[in-house]
Amino acid sequence: AQSVAQPEDQVNVAEGNPLTVKCTYSVSGNPYLFWYVQYPNRGLQFLLKYITGDNLVKGSYGFEAEFNKSQTSFHLKKPSALVSDSALYFCAVRDITAGGSYIPTFGRGTSLIVHP
Amino acid sequence: SAVISQKPSRDICQRGTSLTIQCQVDSQVTMMFWYRQQPGQSLTLIATANQGSEATYESGFVIDKFPISRPNLTFSTLTVSNMSPEDSSIYLCSAVDRVDTEAFFGQGTRLTVV
C-alpha cells in the first residue's frame, strides 16, 4: 500500500522569504515521489520528481525538494518565494517494487499563499 | 513532455442528462486515468482507462454511471451519465507513459449540474 500525508492545509509566507511545503510518504518498497502545482481553473502541472540518485532534486520555477529516506519525507522548498507561487501544491507517491502500480497516490494538497 | 487536450473546459448541464468529456494526448501513452476533484481539494481516482478493454473502476464508481472508452493509445472519453447536482465537480484526465515518469494532466473540465 502507498500513502502520502501533507500535514498543512495552508502555508503562508512573505514574498522573498524561503518556503517549505511538507510531505511524508509510506510505501512498502521504494518510492517514486512527485510534486505538482495547480493554479486556479487549471490542471496539475509537474514540478519535480525523485526517482533515484541525488537526494536533492531541482525542478521548475526554482523549486527543489529533498528526499529523506529515514524520515520518509519529500519536502518542497524554494529559497525566495514569489507572489506568483501562490497556488495549490500536491505531493504524490508511487511504489516501484514488483507489482507496483503506475497509479500515483496524491496528498490532500497544501494551499500556498505568498503575501506581498 | 506530452500534452493533453481536454474538452470541454466547462459546462453547465441539466440534471438527468449526460456529458461526454474527451481527452486527446499528442503521443501514445501506456496508461490513462480519470480523476474527480472538488475545487481546492485532492484528487479522487475514478478509473483507469484500458485500451481495447473495459476500464478498471475504483471503489464507489461504476461503469453505468461513468462509462469510459479508450479506442487507442492517444484518446479516451469519460461520460457522466444521468447527472445530478452531486456530480458537479472538476474532472481531470491524466496519462503516464512509463512507470518512472511523471503523470501529466489535462486542464480539467468544470462541470456544474443544475
Write the layout of secondary structure elements.
The complex is a heterodimer of chains A (116) and B (114).
Chain A: E1 3-5, E2 10-14, E3 19-21, E4 24-26, E5 31-38, E6 44-50, E7 56-58, E8 64-68, E9 73-78, E10 87-95, E11 105-106, E12 110-115
Parallel strand pairs in A: 2-12
Antiparallel strand pairs in A: 1-4, 3-9, 5-6, 5-10, 7-8, 8-9, 10-11, 10-12
Chain B: E1 4-7, E2 10-13, E3 19-25, E4 31-37, E5 43-49, E6 56-57, E7 68-72, E8 75-80, E9 89-96, E10 104-105, E11 109-113
Parallel strand pairs in B: 2-11
Antiparallel strand pairs in B: 1-3, 3-8, 4-5, 4-9, 5-6, 7-8, 9-10, 9-11
Rg of chain B, alpha carbons: 13 Å
Residue fraction in strands of chain B: over 45%
Name the beta content range of chain A.
Answer: over 45%
Question: What integer is the average pLDDT of chain A?
Answer: 93
Termini separation of chain A comes to 41 Å
Q: Sheet bearing the most strands of chain B, described?
A: 7 strands, mixed
Shape of chain A: globular
How many helices of chain A? The count is 0
In DSSP terms (H or I, runs of 4 or more residues), the helix count of chain B works out at 0
- What structural category characterises the helix and strand content of chain A? mainly beta
Largest sheet of chain A: 6 strands, mixed
Low-confidence stretches of chain A: none
Low-confidence stretches of chain B: none
Q: State the total count of DSSP E strands of chain B.
A: 11
**Beta strands of chain A, count:** 12
**Which two protein chains have the largest interface (Cβ within 8 Å of the partner's Cβ), and how many residues from each?**
A-B, 25 and 25 residues
Helical percentage of chain A: under 10%
Structural class of the helices, strands and pairings of chain B? mainly beta
